[in-house]
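Repro:
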Amino acid sequence: MTAASTPKGERRRQALVVAAAELLTEGGFEAVRHRAVAERAGLPLASTTYYFSSLDDLISAAVEHESRQELAAGRAQLDELADQPRSTDAVIELLLDMLLGMESRDGGAEPVLLRYERLVGSPRRPYLAPLMRELSAELHDLLAEIFARSGMAVSRDRLLELIALVDGAVVNALIESNPDPRGAARRMLRAQLG
């Protein structure tokens, strides 16, 4: 048994993953550095290279952790939505949470900009490609389930069109320095789904 497979080792490894995920969310890929992660986790610098073979491995673990947390939160919200009267607005807000991140609820462009920088920047990191494909497929499945359970079943092609619509609205809002890209995407979805 290695130190990394002990309960203490697992806790330390998880603390590093959580710290890296927080830094990734707050500052993008460039914010995830060995020293910053170790400091955020409250662990020695050497622990980052002990528990992860490279910075790429640590970033992959952080991306997966953050994405799995968001998917789980989306599923929980969907379960709550099922217990309430269905409203198009509630469905739209859940879709926006899944596509733009829950941090976007508070308004402002910064959390959305950081999310899109991560998404657009991930192809520069080929080691993330298989994970990004897997997570994207899971997200699309969840979005399809949101629509189906809300009584608004959409085809796979229509789902991809709606995602592209949100992405386009957000990118245009960011280009125009619109302080509320989520609001721009919300208006587009309401026009399509209302």
